[in-house]
Design goal:
Layout lengths: L1 H13 L6 E7 L5 E7 L2 E7 L8 H12 L7 E5 L4 E5 L6 H7 L4 H16 L12 H19 L6 H20 L2 E4 L8 E2 L6 E2 L6 E4 L2 H7 L8 H17 L8 H28 L10 H14 L4 H10 L13
Antiparallel strand pairs: 1-2, 2-3, 3-5, 4-5, 6-9, 7-8
Helix pairs in contact: 4-7, 4-8, 5-9, 6-9, 7-9, 9-10, 10-11
Keywords: ATP-binding, Nucleotide-binding
Protein name: Aminoglycoside phosphotransferase domain-containing protein
Pfam families: APH
């Protein structure tokens, strides 16, 4: 309650003698909370990021870089970093996920606009100033899978042989990911963090941006944990992105099959990480709703492992840990 009162007092200083109302706008998988402040017919978003747990500085830095790259992000209207408060322009309350759930026929248009914005982001000349998405960070993310998904969620102790399998597969995944060309990576570029706005999309939740593999955000977008698309459609959207990215001069594989393989292997890294994060959100943070999203993530993970011989040991391990009926196979082999 104390932070809410602090926040209201700070807002009164921003809008002296102007009455406002404050409503929750959204919560986050972190300690950040967002409120919508209404003053007459105007609305603003207020970020509450407790300084002992969250640092607003990366958000401000990335907002500046993304604005310079020509994409639509919230404007920073006021800030108090000591208290952990930011006042932002309001990008509305319709996420891509909500729009897609209500009007599925718009999907190709929305994803096309999201891919165009992603290319602008990836062309940023300031990306190299961000933290590196290096081997240490990628490895920490992969380790969330055995630590939280296997040990906490499945309550399984891996045998030495299973641990060796996981280490060998992780090493292959890292080798692929680290060899990819590097660009600015949002890290959560998906349907819950893209808002339906004009210009479209409005992009939020970008404070964890890094300098890393070019396929990462594309996987977040097309193999999203919160909405399912069939493989033919993902393939079609990925080809369209690849063609535009090459024309834009991005450092992208000239051979689509090579690019799609990188995309899928990056997906394997992300899906393993996300399964670990969803388990952690449940068992550590009490956010049980993320467990409902695990089956889709596991579906994407298994499908990719089925397609590449080098990932067969991971698929076998998944079968040992979590036997499932095999889905009907849709095969693209690269």
């Amino acid at each position: 309650m104390e932070r809410k009162q602090l926040l209201e007092r700070w807002l009164q200083d921003q809008f002296p003698a102007q009455p406002f109302t404050l409503q929750p706008a959204s919560s986050d998988a972190s300690f950040r909370r967002y409120f919508r402040a209404s003053l007459g017919d105007q609305t603003f978003i207020v970020m509450d990021a407790p300084p002992q747990q969250e640092d607003c500085t990366p958000f401000l830095r990335v907002a500046e870089i993304l604005t310079a790259s020509g994409v639509h992000v919230p404007k920073i209207l006021a800030q108090n970093l000591d208290l952990g408060f930011l006042l932002l322009s309001d990008l509305g309350n319709t996420t891509f996920l909500q729009a897609l759930n209500h009007q599925n026929g718009n999907a190709s248009k929305l994803y096309g606009e999201a891919a165009d914005a992603l290319i602008k982001i990836q062309l940023s000349h300031q990306a190299a100033s961000l933290p590196a998405y290096d081997e240490a960070l990628l490895q920490r993310e992969l380790d969330l899978f055995p630590d939280w998904y296997i040990a906490k969620h499945l309550q399984v102790d891996l045998t030495e042989q299973q641990q060796a399998v996981l280490r060998a597969v992780f090493s292959r995944i890292l080798q692929n990911n680290l060899a990819q060309p590097k660009v600015l990576v949002h890290r959560d570029y998906h349907s819950r963090n893209l808002m339906v706005t004009s210009p479209n999309p409005g992009i939020i939740d970008f404070q964890d941006a890094v300098y890393g593999p070019i396929t990462y955000d594309l996987v977040s977008l097309f193999k999203d944990a919160y909405i399912h698309w069939d493989e033919e459609r993902i393939l079609d959207w990925t080809i369209r992105y690849w063609e535009k990215a090459r024309k834009a001069g991005l450092p992208i594989a000239a051979d689509f099959a090579e690019f799609y393989r990188d995309f899928e292997w990056m997906g394997v890294q992300r899906h393993l990480k996300v399964l670990g994060i969803f388990a952690r959100l449940n068992y550590r943070d009490g956010k049980a709703n993320y467990l409902n999203d695990m089956p889709l993530v596991m579906h994407y993970l298994r499908k990719a492992c089925e397609r590449y011989r080098e990932l067969a040991p991971l698929l076998n391990l998944l079968d040992e840990l979590h036997p499932v009926e095999s889905d009907q196979k849709i095969g693209y082999t690269f």
